[in-house]
Each structure stands twice: as C-alpha cells, then as structure tokens.
Task: inverse folding
C-alpha cells in the first residue's frame, strides 16, 4: 500500500503529465495543411467552456459537464491524438484503461474521482455526458470556422462531420450561429 508521500508524488506526477497536453498538437488538422494546429490543452480548455455553456442552455449540471470536458482527452499524453482515419488501423487501449494507468500512483480520492469522470464521459449515458460529447464536436466545428476564416479551405469535412454529430438542440443552434458569423463578431458588441 503506497504511503501518503508516494500518493502525493504520484498525484504531482499526474499533474506534470497533463502539462504534456500543452505541447501535443491536434493531429487531424494536419490533413488540412495546417502545420501548427491548436494543442490538445487549448482544445480541451474551450471544450470545457463550451460544455459549461451548453449545460446551462440544456438545464443540466454545468460543473459535471465542464469536468468531463476537461478530462475527455487526457489519455492523449500516452496514446497521442489519433486522427479518425488512423483509428481504422490502430486499436488503442480504452480511455478508461489509459486513465487508470495515468493515475495509478495518485492519491486514492484522485484515482476514484478521475476514473469516475472518464467513465461517465465514455459511457455517454447521462444528459451531462451527451452535452460534453456535443461540446467536443462543437469546439471542433468552431475551430474549423476559425481556420476557414484564416484562409484554410480544406476544413469543410470537419465542419460537416461535427455538425452531423451534434445531439442537443442547443449545440445545433450554436453551431448554426457560428457558421453564419465571423469569429470576430463578438468585438462589435464593444466597438460599435
């Protein structure tokens, strides 16, 4: 049985490992010719914001959704960001297994808490998990719209697949709004 010091060090190690996500890029964007796409951490941050917003709009628990969003891609420190086409050829370990390995030396409460968050997200059987999954897809759509506004014309497949995967009314409404406006539209509120 690990002692308190090793649990604390194991938990700190997990925190350091999560820092890898700041440097790991979202590889699917490479297919669009984007050689410097967003990092997994950048993606996860906005997924968390979108998840909380969607949860508020859908009347579910925004804290639960944001927490699921925050942890939804943490496994990519170990397995990388495998693009959808790559999943046809590579069978990666389940996210729950990767998470269990990542937090195996952490404080018992951290192990239990993180495992439950990832389990709930992957099970996708609660309104919060459905909203969290929509947040992930909506963030991809929003990022594609931003890349398109910067001149990248190869992102339409990402927009279409993200839009087609949305389940909630709120996510579909936000996606439609995002598709009809400039990514800098928000500035007009304060500059007019």
Result:
């Amino acid at each position: 049985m690990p002692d308190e010091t090793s649990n604390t060090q194991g938990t700190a190690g997990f925190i350091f490992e999560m820092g890898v996500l700041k440097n790991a890029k979202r590889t699917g964007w490479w297919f669009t010719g984007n050689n410097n796409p967003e990092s997994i951490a950048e993606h996860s941050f906005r997924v968390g914001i979108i998840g909380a917003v969607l949860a508020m709009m859908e009347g579910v628990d925004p804290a639960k959704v944001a927490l699921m969003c925050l942890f939804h891609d943490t496994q990519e420190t170990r397995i990388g960001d495998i693009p959808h086409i790559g999943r046809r050829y590579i069978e990666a370990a389940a996210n729950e297994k990767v998470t269990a390995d990542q937090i195996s030396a952490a404080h018992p409460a951290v192990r239990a808490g993180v495992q439950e968050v990832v389990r709930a997200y992957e099970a996708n059987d609660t309104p919060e998990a459905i909203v969290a999954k929509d947040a992930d897809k909506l963030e991809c759509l929003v990022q594609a719209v931003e890349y398109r506004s910067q001149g990248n014309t190869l992102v339409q497949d990402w927009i279409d697949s993200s839009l087609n995967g949305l389940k909630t009314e709120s996510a579909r409404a936000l996606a439609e709004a995002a598709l009809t406006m400039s990514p800098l539209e928000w500035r007009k509120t304060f500059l007019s």
Observations:
- The domain at 4-191 is CATH 1.10.3210.10 (Hypothetical protein af1432).
- The chain has a mean pLDDT of 95.
